[in-house]
Design the sequence.
């Protein structure tokens, strides 16, 4: 249900998550705030009982806006469509298999963003829950850890389910449909003018490792590196200001450097050699490093 008084949209993407979705929604609905918010749930054609659970929650809680797709359209089209429907000042995320454990999560982050106008993206810490029910707690940070835009280009340090960000009403590009993930490109396109990215040293969220999209992409380091390269190349060609080209070019080199070695490790020797030649001759100042990784990963397979 939309209201002019609502301050933010909480985006929840689901697909075949009947085991987890109740815990996800309960963590959102239990938030203690002095503002109202909208919960936008986009289910991508689940084949299990996820959609029945979602309907029950929608009937009980009018803050939930529910989109049930007749068929699976894919992770990125579902993400892009959800973002296009966010019309509030702020956006928060909680994946359909993660959940919030801090009832003051949204209030804390919104208060911080209101008090710090130069901060556009604010994450928190998260505990990691593995499929074997083992836990990993996050490292201690400063009370508030600040990151630059250059840091964000180098890697996505934010767990999506912890993030609250200002809604910049970014029109997400068509090439993103073929990306492996959408949150990182959204951040990059939202804060390229140098706004702050910060992470609070506060555990608010449980992140389920090796569930859903993470499981699919994490099965191969090669896929991860190629996914990063796809994003970098499209950002540099189509979006980011030229000021960032040198930073992106450096990251493209680093990803290709790692990819070259990983191809060898996985016995894709021809692919590795095809990367080795241009890497070596186009980066003679790094030739020793490239040469060492290339042959070391062949020998130590």
Sequence:
């Amino acid at each position: 249900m939309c209201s002019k008084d609502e301050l933010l949209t909480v985006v929840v993407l689901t697909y075949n998550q009947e085991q987890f979705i109740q815990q996800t929604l309960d963590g959102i609905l239990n938030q203690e705030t002095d503002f109202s918010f909208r919960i936008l749930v986009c289910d991508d054609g689940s084949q299990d009982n996820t959609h029945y659970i979602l309907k029950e929650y929608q009937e009980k809680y009018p803050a939930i806006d529910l989109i049930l797709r007749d068929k699976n359209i894919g992770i990125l089209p579902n993400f892009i469509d959800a973002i296009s429907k966010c019309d509030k000042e702020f956006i928060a995320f909680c994946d359909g298999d993660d959940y919030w454990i801090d009832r003051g999560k949204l209030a804390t982050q919104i208060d911080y963003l209101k008090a710090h106008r130069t901060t556009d993206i604010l994450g928190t810490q998260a505990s990691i829950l593995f499929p074997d029910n083992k836990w990993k707690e996050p490292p201690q940070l400063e009370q508030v850890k600040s990151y630059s835009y250059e840091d964000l280009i180098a890697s996505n340090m934010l767990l999506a389910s912890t993030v609250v960000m200002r809604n910049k009403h970014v029109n997400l590009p068509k090439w993103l449909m073929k990306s492996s993930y959408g949150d990182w490109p959204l951040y990059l396109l939202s804060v390229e003018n140098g706004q702050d990215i910060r992470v609070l040293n506060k555990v608010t969220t449980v992140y389920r490792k090796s569930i859903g999209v993470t499981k699919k992409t994490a099965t191969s380091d090669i896929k991860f590196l190629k996914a990063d390269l796809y994003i970098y190349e499209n950002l540099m060609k189509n979006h980011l200001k030229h000021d960032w080209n040198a930073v992106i070019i450096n990251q493209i080199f680093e990803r290709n450097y790692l990819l070259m070695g990983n191809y060898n490790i996985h016995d894709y020797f021809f692919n590795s050699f095809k990367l080795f030649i241009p890497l070596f001759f186009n980066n003679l100042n790094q030739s020793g490093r490239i040469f060492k990784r290339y042959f070391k990963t062949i020998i130590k397979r």
Notes: The chain has a mean pLDDT of 92. Residues 220-299 form one domain.
